[in-house]
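Entry 14. Ran structure prediction on the chain below.
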Amino acid sequence: MLSSRLEDYLETVYLLSKREDTVGVTEVARERGVAVPTVRSAIVKLQEAGMVRQQPYGKIILTSKGEEAGASIYRVHRALYRFLVEILLIDPKRAETEACRLEHDMSRGTLKRLTTFLETIDNCVYSELGCLSKYRDQVLK
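Output, structure tokens:
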């Protein structure tokens, strides 16, 4: 099991790999706002966990295990972020920070319920139930 810090690095590598052709420690350091040696240390631990491959000073490549874990961490993050912003009406910048904190300890069962809730709200017809308009009205007073 990865520590929350290593999960954050894995999520960063995962997201960068979706945007860029190659991912290096410099890009990860820039994205995370940390020094390159800090990233190198995390990448070594991710390699030991079988999440990434990297030749010395080479580009970082997610293994299939790392790809799956990174995608899972990001799905949890996005669900939490959406809930915080769209339902609880938390400021997006604060919600990003909060989602990052919460994502590491959420069980699959809780995530499934949260996802189901968000999907239900997405598919709710406004005139049917009010679709949280009372809650929004209370929060925005």
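The beta strands are 52-54, 60-62. Will compare against last week's run tomorrow.
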